[in-house]
Amino acid sequence: MIIHNMYPITRGKKKVFRFDYYSADNKKKFLQAPSKKILQEKIDKKFKDKGFVKTNSEQVKVSEAQSEFIDIKLANKRAAGKTQQSTIDDYNSFFYNHIFPYFKNKDIRTITKFDVAKFVNELQEKVHKYDDDSGKIIEKKDISSQTLIKIFNHFKNIISYQVDRFKIENNVCKEINYLTDVHIPEKEKEIIDLDVWTLEVMQEVIGNIDNPMIKLIFMILLETAARPSEIRALERENLLFLKSNSLKIDIVKAVKKGKKLGKTKTKKGKRKVDISPSLKDHIVDYLNTLPPLQDKLFLNTVGKYICIEALNKALINALKKMRPEYQKLPIDRKSYAFRHYRATYFAAKGRFKNALELAHYIGDLDINFVNKTYIAPFEQEEIKGEFKENIIWKN
Asked: Are both 290 and 357 inside the same structural domain?
């Protein structure tokens, strides 16, 4: 049984018991009764539909719940390397753009399941309209269905943290399924036509990039299926072919937001990837243009890691030089498209026999995603012979 912080006061010559609380408009109010038993009944009746049982008279504002979740729980996870700063940035965006504008600084103890349902309904008004058959957006609004779910889950998590800290007893977001009417459309799978988008065509796109450093980054992206953040973080010591006859690059770090060096995206991110002899020669030629004591490979003119925006801008300009049918990549992911292209190419050409092997090579933890996205579309196709390729890069 919850023991509320009821306290006695004297009214005239009689002793009564009082219980303080804050209303939805954050005004301090109180309940009063001649005995603790009667006051307990009043409290139970007052808060029975609120989703929370009051444990003390201190209000917990929505903004305070957010701050404690971010500054304590996630800060600890961040320090332990269990969450990324970009994830925390997303949570802050969800809060300040959607949660706080709706709930303001309401006391979370007074939020009811009806308040939460109305909040979800308001979010649904902001969701894109989709075609039921193709899953494509037919009316663009503010957020996707997936983003709505992420916003709701973040709101649920910040309240759960207050439960964990004994500020409240129950989480109103867990009382019912508020997302029962949220529809996530099944998108048509985008299968790259490798007869149209051949490896040579992808090389042609890269050949149209003017900046030698950015061109080399895309050459490595295409051959290795690595993430742009991983290639931007490369240093001389990661070039294993400089130490031995092994034509490999060691992926160990990634450039994070703010151009700070950090860990790879997943625990499986650390790995060794293959490169062609031709690419090795281009990398060596590039190294010869760098100052001898510069360890980091891809820095801009002010000595910081080249930004992803610079890569994307160079790619957009390169595509404009292509023939009309090749001015839009088969996967609309800008510089990230080269990772998806190469993973698809590996699956289609039989470079890896199953999703587990491919997932390990590209540093992805989600075996099901890798199987569904890359392996499954080509399972019924007959692969002739062993995987062989001889990639040649023009000067």
From this structure: yes
**Distances in Å between the alpha carbon of 161 and those of 68, 71, 110, 145, 155?**
8, 12, 16, 25, 10
Contact 371, 356 (CB under 8 A): no
Q: How far apart are the first and last CA of the chain?
A: 77
Identify whether 341 is part of a domain. yes
Is residue 316 exposed (0-12), middle (13-18) or buried (19+ Cβ within 10 Å)?
Answer: exposed
Beta strands at 248-251 and 254-255: parallel, antiparallel or unpaired: unpaired
Residues 6 or more apart whose Cβ sits within 8 Å of residue 314: 209, 210, 211, 214, 215
Confidence class for position 49, pLDDT limits 50, 70, 90? low
124 and 153 share one domain: yes
Range ranked top by mean pLDDT from 47-56, 171-180, 227-236: 227-236
What's at 4, amino acid-wise?
H
Q: What is the pTM of this model?
A: 0.64
pLDDT grade for 22, boundaries at 50, 70 and 90: low
Question: For residue 25, is pLDDT > 80?
Answer: no
184 within domain boundaries: no
**pLDDT score, position 53:** 42
Same domain, 160 and 259: no
Query: Which token pair is 292?
Result: 């001898």
Segments in the chain forming alpha helices (H)? 36-47, 62-68, 75-79, 85-94, 100-103, 113-124, 145-164, 199-207, 212-224, 228-232, 277-287, 308-320, 337-349, 355-362, 367-370
Pick from 258, 260, 234: which is nearest to 248 by CA? 234
Separation between Cα atoms, residue 266 and residue 79, nearest integer Å: 16
pLDDT above 90 for 11: no
Q: Please check whether residues 220 and 362 belong to one and the same domain.
A: yes
Q: Which of 301, 267, 286, 288 is nearest to 220 (CA)?
A: 286
- My answer on whether 40 and 66 are in the same domain is no
Q: Do residue 158 and residue 298 come from a single domain?
A: no
Assess whether pLDDT exceeds 90 at residue 379: no
Query: What size, in residues, is the chain?
Result: 395
User: Within this chain, do residues 43 and 67 fall inside the same structural domain, yes or no?
Assistant: no
Nearest C-alpha neighbor of 135 from the set 184, 181, 187, 182: 187
* Residue 95: domain span: 62-174
User: How many Å is the Cα radius of gyration of the chain?
Assistant: 28
- Average confidence score pLDDT of the chain: 88
